[in-house]
């Protein structure tokens, strides 16, 4: 099993690929401080997000929602989404197909 590096993904945000295959990728995002952001963006990949720890305010296609430990949801292909960290923690995201830009 290959070990993937931890990379900066924004101010107080890191990203680490946990597993990958051409059809699926698992990635952990760690938010180290309140106010850290995952900027609004979209991509062709279908994404599932699981909150391992912390609290986040997500926006999904203009609709806000607050999520915390144990919550999960699916982001459809090309949906505009992003988040603001309300309490430091970690998100575990799965992407299909794999996010080659993360390798």
TrEMBL record:
User: Lineage in the entry?
Assistant: Bacteria, Pseudomonadati, Pseudomonadota, Alphaproteobacteria, Rhodobacterales
Pinpoint the Cupin type-2 domain residues.
34-92
Cited InterPro entries:
Bacilysin_H2HPP_isomerase, Cupin_2, KdgF, RmlC-like_jellyroll, RmlC_Cupin_sf
What is the protein's name according to its record? Cupin domain-containing protein
Supply the Gene3D superfamilies for this chain.
Answer: Jelly Rolls
Source organism: Gymnodinialimonas phycosphaerae
Q: Which Pfam families match?
A: Cupin_2
């Amino acid at each position: 099993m290959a070990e993937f590096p931890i990379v900066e993904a924004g101010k107080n945000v890191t990203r680490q690929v946990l597993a990958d295959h051409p059809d699926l990728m698992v990635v952990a995002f760690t938010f180290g401080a309140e106010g850290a952001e995952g900027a609004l963006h979209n991509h062709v990949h279908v994404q599932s997000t699981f909150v391992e720890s912390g609290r986040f305010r997500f926006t999904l296609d203009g609709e806000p929602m607050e999520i915390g430990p144990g919550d999960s949801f699916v982001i459809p292909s090309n949906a505009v989404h992003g988040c603001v960290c309300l309490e430091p923690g970690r998100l575990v995201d799965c992407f299909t197909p794999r996010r080659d830009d993360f390798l």
